[in-house]
Amino acid sequence: MDAPPLDTLTAALAADLDGAFPDLVRLLQDDLFSGALRLTGGWADAEDVAQEAFVRAYRALQGYPPERIRALRLRGWMWTIALNLCRNRARSRARRPETALGEGVEPPDTGVGPEQAALDADGSGRLGALVAGLPWAQRRGVVLRHVVGLSYEEIAAAVERPVGTVKADVHRGLARLRAAVGTEEAP
Amino acid sequence: MSDRPIGDLAALRRAAPSTLLPAVLTATGLADGYVTRPSPLGDVYVAFNDEGVSAVDVATDPARFEARFAERFGRPAVPAAALPEALAARIDRAIAEGRPGALPLDLRSVTPFQAAVLAKTAEIPRGEVRPYGWVAGEIGRPGATRAVGSALARNPVPVVIPCHRVVRSDGVLGRYSLGEDANKRRLLEMEGLDVDGLAALAARGVRLVGSDTTHVYCHPTCGHARRITDAHRVEFRSAADAERAGYRACLRCRPAAAA
Lengths: 187, 259
Hints:
Chain A is an all-alpha fold and about 190 residues long. Chain A has 9 helices and no strands. Chain A has one domain (about 5-185): Arc Repressor Mutant, subunit A. Chain B contains 9 helices and 10 strands.
């Protein structure tokens, strides 16, 4: 089932929250999960965060009058909710030394085929670990901009910071990643 | 400073697990989760939510079950990733015993009349049957026999609420909502009921049996009636006949309420 585009969804949610909410989940679940996966560093954490973020969003929408729902910028709003959850998970994960950041980012039960595993082993696996090692503000910016694909304006709204600050965070994060990749690629 | 991403950060995207949407919908109450469990009739679909079990159904495949559920309850049922162990044990026990017991049920979809019919039906012991008219009388609606039949036909949780134990007073088993009508006979026979014997009795016009030692009369399948030896068994065509003969109604199966 194809979900309607995001810009018509606010009207649908305002008119029939229960009927339209599953489409909100369908439309944003890959965004939420991918972002949470790279921000928390764990598959199970990402599943929990994405689920909890949608449940909180639903409960919040239940209390909003229709005009407020219609005026929502859904993508950024969802990330306002999800980022708090991600940050708490990332913090508690950092306190567990046995699970270093960046580990456990693949599904349990070897749901990954050999090709995907090989790809992760030499490509995104290492890059994912480097992203997971960035300071929080930079990681947040890089993941939301380049993994999730939010605009700077959406990110700024989600993190409640000026656009310029968000851009600077992303640039610094990318620079750090580039330096790390360069070091690793040097003979 | 370049904004050009390094490597392929977009390749760090992963599709959300297929369990995410069902988990969100069940957690928000927008959908019920469902599982399949073994039953005397083979695997049955069991749907549940925070209130309890909302539906028991048979279907040829999950898609058919989901369509039937959505049409009836106005919300989707989605496959549950996992069933809490305590709930699984209660479901299996309720299905095996043919009574809710400790299993919470979600009966919000039924009317107060239907709820009364279902609650009364849940009291009928395993291996015994009662006429539709008995249920009507017991809930204070004598004469609503037909409405009792309709309510039981809409029983959202068959087997767990044993609507198969309510039959026509003429000994015909009547319709059954779970799968095919023959399932009603299967369930009753698995509970040890002599269905043909009951039908033969009813065909002779016998509705009630009594003991000439205790002068108590019962439904033929009442646990007390089945202890009466042949030498002392007396047959009656109606409660009025039994009362005229000086018999009193059994306190356990309360046959006087039968229409």
